[in-house]
Specification:
Length: 147
């Protein structure tokens, strides 16, 4: 194995588990009625063309709540041609992605691309890089977040 093909150090942590939902409010209420999850923070996420490194502009409603040592993230696609709406339309609601927090964003992206796994959608939010990569084999949709 060449040095360039060597694996990177593991991610610092799992940042969150992401689920696609049809109705954010109903899902937050339901999950909170079953478990003591919360408090929820919800917000509209609307990355525009200037914010994106890959993918198309879209509108999402996002709800996040602490759950043990990680965060549960719910994503309701509102508009736009995007991976969250595609998932909902093809599979219904469910586990969509796992977000990994990494120290070296650029080396991680380069390693994914070197392995033939391009960024599907990604950009910059709150001065931090984020991006989604569909891995094969394994079928994992990995969100990579800059630490």
């Amino acid at each position: 194995m060449k040095a360039a093909d060597a694996p990177l150090p593991p991610p610092e942590k799992i940042g969150h588990l992401g689920l696609v939902v049809k109705d954010l409010e109903k899902t937050m209420e339901f999950l909170s009625s079953i478990w003591e999850i919360g408090p929820w923070q919800s917000f509209e996420f609307t990355p525009g063309a200037d914010d994106l490194l890959a993918g198309k502009p879209c509108r999402l409603m996002v709800g996040q709540a602490p759950m043990g040592t990680t965060i549960l993230e719910l994503v309701e696609p509102l508009s736009g041609d995007n991976i969250w709406a595609d998932f909902r339309d093809e599979h219904g609601e469910g586990l969509h992605h796992i977000a990994f927090v990494v120290k070296d964003w650029e080396a991680t992206v380069a390693r994914f691309e070197q392995a033939g796994i391009p960024m599907i959608v990604g950009g910059i939010a709150d001065s931090k890089h984020w991006g989604y990569f569909a891995t094969t084999p394994g079928g994992l949709l990995a969100e990579i977040n800059e630490a």
